[in-house]
Amino acid sequence: MRWGGQKVVKDGVGTDVALPGMRGLLRSVRPPEFAGMIFHEVEARSALNKVPSSSSMPFTWTINPYRGCGHACTYCFARHTHTYLDLDVGEDFNRQVVVKVNVARVLDRELRSAGWRSEPVSMGTNTDPYQRAEGRYRLMPGVIAALARSGTPFSVLTKGTLLGRDLPELVAASADVPVGLGVSLALADRNLQASLEPGTPSPAARLELVRRISDAGLRCGVMVAPVLPLLTDSEEALDALLAAIARAGASGATVLALHLRPGTREWFMAWLAREYPGLVERYQQLYSRGAYVDRRYQEALAQQVAPLLRRHGLAGGAARRGLPGDRAGPWPGGGPARGAGAAGEKLERSEQLSLL
């Protein structure tokens, strides 16, 4: 989907936003069950996004049914993509979600084309396909069915427990194609999670999702990301979190440090100044060279995490092992931290080029 020639119009008090220039826009709605949210329903012209061949990501294509995300994660690296609509990286990203209502139908057409070679497809690498909006729009069952019918391997990474709704479809699809599932879980502290990720299910709910996936007979990796320097990176905290992940039946875990690209950096640092003002100067030092934390921190985190992953049986194996076309190891959620930031950097570069 391309977004050229669009304008944002705000009313006199700046509280209502419409996108009248968006090609394919059907309507913008404020459902009463989603307080404060605006859903811009559009008809997409395409569903599959090609990952550049130069990328070392372990998938070739992505699908993003939504743009913007009600999870409202303070650290979300996809925030900058909202600026292409002249929307801001903050509350607009959290509250104004573009919904590709025809994504399953368009995907089915693309997968039926003579040139489609059933290369691996990944979902959840940008905005979450199982964010709360999915409860209203139910786009993923059609996406899953189209991929399975076409013999296309796929993976899903999510924070959303709505994935549990589709477990029967995912189990059925796994009989026809390789299916990889991953759950993103950065921390166990409920109060900190509610402040950092106010729209996400609780850590306990996500651990239960891992358990349900495992009980259904599917492998599930966990992405422990982002690790926040001086907040969630203690050995005690990581050990406890990885122990809980292992008890839930995860097949592997990957641990990645926080990265702060432009847009996200400003939004996150404003949150840090409100909640932990004493850490602002230290973060400025750790991220003085750009989006990625100081290399010495990355190396120290990797050394700390490696024995913990081994201790809890999470260092080997992952949800996607064996998918044809893998180019850079397991995805999502398997293996030790690779530089505690390298995989995140590759993901960011891929999504910069593979826009929604």
Walk me through the structure.
- The protein contains twelve helices and 13 strands.
- It has 356 residues and is α/β, with parallel strands linked by helices.
- The chain has one domain: TIM Barrel (Alpha-Beta Barrel).
- The strands form three sheets. The protein has a seven-stranded mixed sheet with strand order 5-6-9-10-11-12-13, sandwiched between helices. A four-stranded mixed sheet has the order 3-4-8-7. A two-stranded antiparallel ribbon has the order 1-2.
- α2 (103-111) packs parallel to α4.
- The longest helix has 17 residues, at 295-311.
Task: Please sum up the structure shown.
With 356 residues, the chain is α/β, with parallel strands linked by helices. It has one domain: Aldolase class I (TIM Barrel). The chain has 12 helices and 13 strands.
Low-confidence stretches: 1-16, 317-356
Can you count the helices? 12
What shape does the CA trace take? globular
CATH fold node name = TIM Barrel
Assigned CATH superfamily: Aldolase class I
Strand order of the largest sheet: 5-6-9-10-11-12-13
Q: How many whole angstroms does the radius of gyration measure? A: 19 Å
What's the number of extended β-strand segments? 13
Share of helical residues:
25-40%
Overall average residue pLDDT: 85
| CATH architectural arrangement | Alpha-Beta Barrel
Distance between the termini: 6 Å
